Amino acid sequence: MKILVIGDLHGEFPENVKEVINKEKIDLILSTGDFANFDNYRKIKFEKMDKTKFSNKVKDSVNNEDYNKMINEIIKSMEKPLEVLDSFNIPVYTIYGNLDYTNYEVNKHKIRTNSLNRIVKKSKNIKLFREGYVDLGNLQILLFSGYRKNALKYAPKKTKKVDRLNKGWRDRLNKIFSQIKPHKPVLFLFHDPPKDTKLDLINNPNSPMNGKHVGDEINREFIEKYQPQVAVCGHMHETQGTDQIGKSLIINAGYGRVGQFLILDINGNNVKYDLRKWKN
């Protein structure tokens, strides 16, 4: 089975990826999420950020009219990459990342507009998973959406709330990993790289977290325990590449917006991968 994996499209869909999908015999497309363009939002956040606490509320930095306009533009930006993905008439399984506006976020902001769920519902070929298990006969795919917030990942002190939310994260992962059948390859698709790998190391001098590992230790915990043949993530734009956790091959599919993506060719336990980048 030949699978194309792409994520972090952030409002765009590069021409080079369109050409590959049209030329190669791709059986399935997987996406690691983050369809929305957050450029303006991130610019304000980094400009106003308290670098000692790695926090600030963007909403407090702009007036209500400008903020609502920016949020509507962010939500609108999800449409283009999803429409292109739907146009290839190939099954697309996607999760959402930390920069996608699902029904939950849209309702929370009390905005009457589109959402990731509504855009996908109108599509012909895309299926969105919060968490899910798909058995394709010769391959099992585990899909896991979301991003565990910094307040949970780096909580200086454990509280009942932190413990409860982290338990909820583990419960969701248990729900899909418990369905694995023996003697059949497993692909785990998720957003945030596992902690302490080559794929979660920030290499950005403009970031207050430069030089630190910022991945998810619970995602890593489940990879260590269940050892899927291949685990594919996104989120970290600058770390397209591979690493190993035990017998599991870990791959960051790359920054899709600039033409980075992954092609997997899986035949039983034989996994071939091809990480590609746009060459200007």
Report a brief summary of the structure:
The chain has a six-stranded mixed β-sheet with strand order 4-3-2-1-11-12. It contains nine helices and twelve strands. The protein has 280 residues and is an alpha/beta fold.
What does this entry look like structurally?
This protein is α/β, with parallel strands linked by helices and 280 residues long. It is 31% helix and 20% strand. The protein is built from 9 helices and 12 strands. The strands form 2 sheets. A 6-stranded mixed beta sheet has the order 4-3-2-1-11-12. Strands 5-6-7-8-10-9 form a 6-stranded mixed beta sheet. Strand 7 (186-189), helix 9 and strand 8 (230-233) form a beta-alpha-beta unit. Helix 8 runs parallel beside helix 9 (217-226). The two termini are 29 Å apart. The mean pLDDT is 91.
Distance between the termini: 29 Å
- Radius of gyration based on Cα positions: 18 Å
Order of helices and strands: EHEHHHEHHEEEHHEHEEEEE
Output the number of helix runs: 9
Query: How many strand segments?
Result: 12
Structural class by secondary-structure content: alpha/beta
Large-scale geometry: globular
The overall average pLDDT, rounded, is 91
Q: Outline the biggest β-sheet.
A: 6 strands, mixed
Sheet with the most strands: spatial strand order: 4-3-2-1-11-12
Proportion of residues in helical segments: 25-40%
